[in-house]
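It would be a great kindness if you could assist me with a short task in structural biology. A protein sequence and the structure tokens that stand for its backbone fold form the material at issue. I should value your view on which stretches of the chain appear to form regular backbone elements. The record follows directly beneath this note.
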Amino acid sequence: MKSNNLLASACLGSIGLAAAIGALALAEPAKEMKPAGQPAEMQLPPGWTPEDFQACVAAGTPGDMQKFLAEGAGTWQGKTQSWMAPDTPAMNGECICVITPMMDGRFVKSEFTGEFPGMGPFSGLGLYGFDNVSKKFVSSWIDNQSTGMMQGTGDVSPDRKTLTWKLTYNCPINKKPAIMREIETITGPNTKTMEMWTTDPKSGKEYKMMLIEFTRKS
């Protein structure tokens, strides 16, 4: 009974059933990702069907979209331009972004360091994945310049060259939830750009607040 309760909790909590029961192991993201089967000794909770179980397995099994994220692994050198408000001069800087697959290829971790004029040393940590249930890319972000967590959902273009994010955070000036757009564009095998757009809390005008041109180190 205890194992059945754990099984149900893992599925309903969207934790990824395959990981919870240890039935799926992925040594490297580049290798073939195979769904887990049901162990012969496992008894399903009352009312569950084999299809229910397989739906949970599918929700937790990394696939094509997780591979797409893992292809971005590596150390990226970035040149930054940032703007504090619309129609203001750009401030230039540099950054490093290290992207690492984690959780057996289900997610990637992005560790960001840099220095922006007027802000001093900057560091951030992002977790990115693809939710097999919602069919959306998902993200969480924290950094050393804020105390809130930014959450996001994203979609990729049909040619998989552009990943567009809708990010939500709390505006410290208006004290209200706000939305930021982030557009990642793959420009070559080892180059990409990232644009961030937000709404000016004073004028209500959307403007580009940051542009980063990335090159992956060999």
User: Anything to note?
Assistant: Residues 114 and 144 are 11 Å apart (CA to CA).
